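hey
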């Protein structure tokens, strides 16, 4: 298995919520988080600004989950 980088995973997740987790190997979890983030952020643009705040929370949670996953994978 190729060695994974915590820094690269965090950069990917910073730009695209959840895809850093997919990079680390948990593709299903990463894609689900990415899809949730896209839907919530689209709702934030077109429906109500409260979804924009929820999208920011999902983004922060995604970064935390990526860091947690990276610590498990990149030991």
């Amino acid at each position: 298995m190729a060695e994974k980088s915590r820094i690269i995973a965090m950069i990917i997740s910073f730009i695209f919520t959840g895809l850093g987790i997919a990079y680390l190997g948990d593709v299903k979890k990463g894609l689900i988080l990415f899809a949730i983030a896209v839907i919530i952020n689209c709702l934030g643009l077109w429906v109500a600004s409260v979804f924009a705040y929820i999208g920011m929370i999902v983004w922060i949670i995604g970064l935390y989950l990526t860091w947690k996953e990276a610590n498990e994978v990149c030991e």
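The chain is about 80% helix and 0% strand. The helical segments are 6-15, 19-24, 27-46, 49-73.
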